[in-house]
Specification:
Length: 168
């Protein structure tokens, strides 16, 4: 992508094969992508993409139904595992009914790993405060003469910190 550094860059829009747009206040130009949905749906070089999209269209609802039956502490990765296995079985030539049964068996393996956990609700959740250097800062008296500067323990250990303890 090319960034315009001149005083008056062109107005955002399409200029032939060049597309000009603004991102975070910076004018950027790039060559327009010739790929469109119609080409993906009809061109022979995207036949593999269409094939795997059809497999995913079949596997996704099957995996979703099985995933919904898992306990409440299920995770997205479990759904992704189930969908991946469903696609593999569909590639092997198994029918949807066979895949559904195999997914139920795979879900039992996942269910055995999941341990019943108490879910945290919004009210019961404690907010975790980020540790910051500035939470433990020492007050500095203005217009005081500083005789010695003692660095905090973090600085003595070589860790980066901006805390200093000033003795007057």
């Amino acid at each position: 992508m090319a960034k315009y550094v001149c005083e008056s860059p062109p107005v955002p829009g399409n200029y032939g094969i060049i597309q000009v747009y603004k991102r975070q206040g910076v004018t950027i130009a790039r060559v327009r992508n010739p790929l469109c949905g119609k080409r993906v749906q009809t061109a022979p070089e995207f036949a593999g993409t269409r094939k795997y999209a059809q497999l995913l269209a079949i596997a996704s609802p099957l995996a979703s139904a099985v995933h919904q039956a898992l306990p409440a502490n299920r995770q997205r990765s479990h759904y992704q595992q189930l969908a991946g296995k469903a696609i593999q079985w569909l590639k092997e030539g198994k029918s949807e009914v066979e895949v559904r049964v195999l997914l139920q068996e795979a879900a039992e393996d996942i269910r055995s790993v999941l341990q019943p956990q108490r879910l945290k609700t919004g009210k019961a959740r404690r907010s975790v405060r980020k540790k910051s250097v500035f939470n433990n800062r020492v007050a500095v008296i203005p217009f005081a003469k500083v005789s010695k500067v003692h660095y905090s323990r973090e600085l003595q250990r070589g860790q980066s910190s901006c805390m200093m303890k000033l003795q007057v």
